[in-house]
Design a protein that fits this description.
550 residues, five-stranded mixed beta sheet, 19 helices, globular, binds fe (ii) ion
Length: 550
Amino acid sequence: MRVLGINAIFHDPAAALVVDGRVVAAAEEERFSRRKHGKRPVPFSAWELPELSAAWCLASAGIDVDRLDAVAYSFDPGLCRDAAELGLADPWDGLRVDYARRAPQFLAAALPGLDPEKVRFVPHHVAHAASAGLAAPPAGDDTAVLVLDGRGEVASHLAGVYRGGRLSPLRSQELPHSLGLLYEDLTRHLGFLHSSDEYKVMALASYGTPKHLDALRELVRVTDDGGFRVEPIDWAGLAKRVEAGTELGEAHADLAASVQRRLEEVVLDLARWLHDASGGARTLAMAGGVALNCVANARIAAEGPYRDVWVQPAAGDAGTALGAALHVAAELGDRTAPMTGVDLGRGWSDEELEAELRRAALPYTRPESIAAEAAEVLAGNGIVAWYQGRSEYGPRALGHRSLLAHPGDRDTTRRMNDVKGREQFRPIAPMVRAERFPDVFEGVFPSPYMLFVHRVKPQWRDRIPAVTHVDGTARVQTVHAETEPLVAEMLAEFERRTGLPVVVNTSLNTAGRPMVDTPRETMELFGSAPVDLLALGPFAVRRRAFGGDR
Ligand SMILES: [Fe+2]
């Protein structure tokens, strides 16, 4: 069966293609349109479809629109109720529902040749659940699944269990109670962009003290039946609202710390309830925007009752394109295959990359080993733009569209944040060869998708200060030679030169822009930011200070 998945309703529009139960292509629209998050998260934009990514998914697999068996749309307007009845202050919500109802016709217009009858609505949280429960590595038994989201049609959460590829829902929490919307409200109050910058609030939280935890325990409570309540919160009474141009202070960090801590407590309770209700499932799979909170994830893994915790790397709404497609493929009788990596986006052949370099008239070489070439520059404290293979699906760069640097220099954080124009309180993350992980870090292993925080062993903190956060943690990506041989080779070459098994890895983009996707965007970044080496596939472009003639 050939199923195209579409996420379009709230934010992060994306498309994914599942053929015979296997994800063969998946991409976010922002990588094509170059508009961060694809569109604004407002009801008026609900009609906008991931047209470019959907067309690319089909073209990359050589499948014509009329050969699709189904299109899975990750929202079911038939489940919706009036926003006021749900306690949501959203007078335009009805417009969103209207647009969703007309999605089959919109899709048929965007993808000429598509029969609108082939469009199936998948409940939003079922799509999130499938992106976790069906995409997780096989557990060999039941998989508990926990969706923690901002909102879907009428709920914000889903707890269930997958048995033999079928979801049995156990509990969902109806709106307006929502952990995702709670975090979004805080994000807005702290002057950041909601549905986008929540991870900045998580980073800010590590600088604060949870002074308001008692108050928040009153306002955000779990119920005995696996649900929760979020009462209205007087944010301004806890810390002054941050307006454009005003600075973040201690009170803001304390508020972020308080909400973050309470969130961790609540999701732990929900995970424990689900463990009991599922009859003691050994694996927990998670998705939904809140599942990108790697501090909470680490606590669930460390303190929760599960043997394994797996988080969908595209846990936000983009991942519902993949989940909806997997869900419909399973409904149509396909046996679904777990994800083996996130390199599901666009890629270019060596010949195509070389043609791009020639067109740009950039002086380049083809070294014997691009991994060794990059390691050499990194060892000399240079910054490397690392562009290899297909681009990543989801918000993290994981060694395909990455900006790399030396972890041993305290100044690296400032330099990287300068390249990217980011706030200085934001940490940068390490990648480490899987076999060296236990020497340097403690915590969840494997962690190939950077979705958990880990403790840096005390003896390593001074050796890799650039990636050791203020609280002694790091958000680690473990690199496995079987799935990422080139990145593993680069790490090994770097360790041979420096004795350090860790390299700084952050996304290859500049502030406010999506990650680069094409070779041309990569060369534009290289030309406009202080990057010392561009490793474009097997080709190297160096700046003068590192032996180039530019
Ligand atoms: Fe969602």
